[in-house]
Amino acid sequence: MGATLAQVFISYARSEEKVARRVAAKLKEADFDVWWDADLPAHRSYSEVIEKHLKDAPAVVVLWSKSAAKSQWVRAEADYARSEGKLVQAQLDAQLPPMPFNQIQCANLAGWRGSDRHPGWSKLRDSVAALVAGEDLPASPTEPSAKWWQVRRYQWIGAGAVLLLLAAAWLLPAWMTSNGGERPVVAVLPFESLDERDSSLVLGIWEDTRNALSRNPQLLVLGPNTSEELAKKDTKAVRNAADYVVRANVRSVGNRIRVSANLVRTKDDAQVWSERFDRKLDDVFALQGEIARDIEGRIRGRLAKKGGIMPENIATTGEVYALYSDARAKIRKRQLHLFEEAERQLEQVVEKDPNFAPGWATLAVVRKMAGLAPSSGRPEQLARRAITLAPNLAAGHAALGFTLESGPTAQAALRKALAIDPNDIEAMNWLANSLDRSKTDERLQLYSRIVELEPLWWPAILNKLGLLTEKGDRAAAQAELQRVERIGDNSIAALIKIHLATRSGDLSSAVNIGLAEYARSAGFQQSENRNLMNLMLWEPLMQLGYFAEADQIFPPPPPSRAYIPLIRENDPRALDIVEARMKPRQFWEFGPLPIVLARVYLLNGQGPRLAQRYRDVAKSPAEFEQVVGPGRLPDIAPSVALALKGAGDPDQAAALLTLAESRLPKATLGASEKIQLARIFAVQGRTEEAMSLLSDAIKDGWLPPYMPVHTDIALDPPLAELKVDPRFQKLRQQILGHLEKERAELGTINLPKAAIS
């Protein structure tokens, strides 16, 4: 092609070379200058030439096939063309283009043999001609209009029980869609070798780092020759050439290497970032790539658009963002059966792009939310990794606060997330959940703000209702129900009614409301609505002892099916199964499992085994709190303290209970907090205080939820410390009598097919 710039760039998978050659030939016949990699000069760098022609060509033709969809090169080139508004797509086989490209117009060249009259070829040729002439392509008919989104928003969310799926095809990240704004210019100056013997290694690390940064479409990275020349110039020359400079020096000592790197903003010589990397010198080429990847990761988030506040601001490939977006949508639905699938997708995200900070943040959230026992990486560690990569990412700070659950550190992280992104509804919800009852007004303001932004997001609605119920504000709770009914979402309205009935102790009505809604709404044939309703019905069914029906609508995850029935029977075989499958730390971190299994240990005289599991992870109550989290400590501590006492360690038990008590509010206690304190006081021997709290909670309408407190409170080891008191037996019979009455009113349950998972 000589010095002539190509008008058309062709991207394809190697297996489709024959078709690519035919497309190139036909475009040349139509008087277009075409470049494809068959024109690659033998003396030039492959990536350098491709990048130049990709940027310069006004039209980029992507030939999609099953092989092309798997090609990182094809996806990357399609990403770039899409972001620059010059993408022309053609489909070569029966497989649609991958997300998000399946939402963009695509010519069908399946079966094309070179005919000018083929409709797919005519469409492709006309699109190329329009782009080369400087015209915009018409919008894809599959893309939803803004008007549709605004008018149908509430109906769409409600039909999916507040489905918040931000499909990658409809809400592409800003770096893929925006043509505006100048990209920061980065000069990666040659890295300095502090020992001449390391010069080859240092050169390799420098080249790999520059190449890694060059793949980021948000940055303009100066070439090696320019960077070498700038290293010889003064500060003014560097400032004129680049917005940021990356510098590093390398030193090897024995079998280890140390790289000190920094990022400097040239306009004011401010150091944006600096870090030191220490590595073992094993595989030299792997080491070069690893250090280059680490440096790129620290820089990407710091130089992202808008400071890297939102996930869509941070660059990655279309494939990775599509996986991330889909996983995030699954998590928003709050359906347990989707959590493991979302976790697998996010593990692919961080494997494919280890420097994509939003992937680490969201992986932390799903592991914490589902109580998943990870093979590697605790949720808190994953959240901190996200913040290391992108300090301004709101989702990273929100994830850290969520994984820490409660306490000053968690709340500080969540407040920082909201300072960065004031409309982050997840961060608002988690912050409100982390606050104690002394901050009831702030909690209510946060929940109310969420439902202003997302009027049908059921987690916030139910949290708000729970708070109003605790305050005894039935009028406000009814107003919330009426608000949802006015919007017209019967599914969410039914959930609210179930919630209110359950909280008032009318369990039979709660179940009947759900069963009636199944019968009324054909929409519950859809798995999303059904699973949400099943989740709400599961609690009253468990409280009433309908275990088989509860398992039908909400089956336990497959790994737990071997021991959950045994736990319900307080069968000690459950202990052997769990201990064989879970290491101590995994056990203590695994959601509600340690809370309910502690009961089985103690009722079967296996307290010393439980005490040993405690000692396996902690030498002190403070260390134990680091494992289970301050939010769960008040529920777990009483049973563990009983185990420690039985194992001959009363001092450790006393210290653990004191710490747990300190994590609960001192005033304005709700029914749940009263029960938590009653269990602590009962184990401490503070019988009068414990009985007073237990009695008050039951007067407030509290019923044992089965988890963490068994519906027969005499089977809860901490509360069973009070069973010699006649008042305890009277309260126990009051609870059991109420549950028996509710069960009699409900009778035999015939679950509709729509309810069965």
Automatic annotation (TrEMBL):
Q: Transmembrane stretches, by residue range?
A: 156-176
BP terms from Gene Ontology: signal transduction
Give the species.
Sphingomonas edaphi
Sorted alphabetically, which keywords does the UniProt record give? Membrane, Transmembrane, Transmembrane helix
Q: One Pfam family, short name please?
A: TIR_2
- Could you identify this protein by its name? TIR domain-containing protein
Residue ranges annotated for the TIR domain, each copy included: 8-112
